[in-house]
Amino acid sequence: MTPAMTHHITHHLPEPMLADYAAGRLGHAFSVAVAAHVSLCDECRARLAAHEAAGGAVLETLPPEPVSDDLMARVMARLDDPAAAPPEPPAPSSIFPGPVMAALKGRPPRWRSLGMGIRQSLLHAGKDGSLRLLYIPPGRAVPDHGHEGRELTLVLQGAFHDETGHFGVGDIEVADASLEHTPVADEGTPCICLAATDAPLRFRALVPRLLQPIFRI
Amino acid sequence: MTGEVDTISEETRLLIRVRDGRDRQAFAALFAHYAPRLKAMLRRGGMGEAQAEEVVQEAMLAVWHKATQFDPTRASASAWIYRIARNRQIDIFRREGRPVPDELTESPPPEPDAADALALDQETRRLRAALEALPPAQREMVERAYLGELSHSEIAAATGLPLGTIKSRIRLALERLRHELKDLRQP
């Protein structure tokens, strides 16, 4: 079960991204970020369900394609086989929604220092983008960075603000390639974010570009 | 405009029978209706004949096993089966599996409000009628988007379908569910 919502979420996912998630068209990193935000946000949960209703309407109106004669018998024969059940998704923790727990494979984050007290735990890096957790001490800034593609940043603990607004738990920032932003963690609690990109990041100040392949950021 | 129907759709009723009674006959009827449509959807997405049938099998098995989570105030049978099939498809084809949002409850409340389920079903029918009423070129774009052939940003965000009312309905159902869960958790 998902934890009770503690914060009024004001930053949501754009409609086309929810629709693409519904249609299975997002890469893995973005899919985790979308599923994690929806876990925390009933507004986007309802919007996603509306897109699934549209997907369902399309499914209903498709000209059916006949299936093999024995397909139904094969499925009926497996109904009592417990091994045929799809795997259960992992339960959320107090900080990490289920989809993030799945990306962590149920283990605690393996934090690596990025300097200045900032830490990251890389969860996924591939052609379709990267996924990591960021740990930002209170009041600390994440160095100015741009990105090749889009970046989603979901707050899981604490809060941050940047040139575009203030983001608390459950809020998601959607940045495109043109946004050069400097997120600063609020005073008080350290800020933990889930950051997903659909292209590799390029940091300006923190780590020289040459080191990027080593740190895989 | 379609005439108002005052009963829940046949498919949603079948799915409720599967959920509440593990009813194999109802499941067979759902299979007969959805398996050929799911196959058509997967084939449109570029999948081969045998592979598409493989995914249809797994998706329908997931329908059987996950039916306990079906809540007709938040989804019609078609929407719910569309979701389950997408999840299974990606689980099978991606090493990392499909990330899915946390469920709100382990199981839906024992007696979801019948009027709410009917209202959602009527919205679903209106949505389908709106889809069928779109000009052919626009309808094709919407279909391609939900079949996974185009991204929604490629079709300029607006799908041409009125999703606002169905969203509001589901939002209300979620609020009610949150409220009930809170009451349940009171000491």
Summarize the structure.
Chain A has 217 residues and is α+β, with helices and mostly antiparallel strands. Chain A contains six helices and eleven strands.
CATH level 1 class label of chain A: Mainly Beta
Mean pLDDT of chain B: 89
Helix content of chain A: 25-40%
Report the average pLDDT across residues of chain A: 88
Name the strands of the widest sheet of chain A in spatial order. 1-2-3-10-5-8
How many β-strand stretches of chain B? Answer: 0
How many strand elements of chain A?
11
Q: Estimate what percentage of residues of chain A fall within beta strands.
A: 15-25%
CATH architecture of the largest domain in chain B: Orthogonal Bundle
Q: In angstroms, what is the radius of gyration of chain A?
A: 20 Å
Q: What gross morphology of chain B would you assign?
A: globular
User: How is the CATH topology of chain A named?
Assistant: Jelly Rolls
Q: Return the structural class of chain A.
A: alpha+beta
Order of helices and strands of chain B: HHHHHHH
Protein name (chain A): Putative transcriptional regulator
InterPro entries (chain A): Anti-sigma_ChrR, Anti_sigma_zinc_sf, ChrR-like_cupin_dom, RmlC-like_jellyroll, RmlC_Cupin_sf
Domain ChrR-like cupin (chain A): 110-194
Pfam families (chain A): Cupin_7 (PF12973)
Describe this structure in words.
- The complex is a heterodimer of chains A (217) and B (187).
- Chain A is an alpha+beta fold and 217 residues long.
- Chain A is built from six helices and eleven strands.
- Chain A has helices at residues 15-22, 28-40, 42-61, 71-77, 98-103, 212-215, and strands at residues 112-115, 118-126, 129-136, 145-147, 151-157, 160-162, 165-167, 172-175, 184-185, 191-197, 201-203.
- In chain A, the strands form three sheets. Chain A has a six-stranded antiparallel beta sheet with strand order 1-2-3-10-5-8, covered by helices on one side. A three-stranded antiparallel beta sheet of chain A has the order 7-6-9, with no helix packed on it.
- In chain A, strand 6 and strand 7 form a beta hairpin.
- In chain A, helix 2 crosses helix 3.
- Chain A is elongated and about 65 Å long.
- The two termini of chain A are 32 Å apart.
- With 187 residues, chain B is mostly helical.
- Chain B contains seven helices and no strands.
- Chain B has helices at 10-21, 24-44, 49-66, 77-93, 114-133, 136-146, 164-185.
- The N and C termini of chain B lie far apart (49 Å).
- The model of chain B has no long low-confidence stretch (mean pLDDT 89).
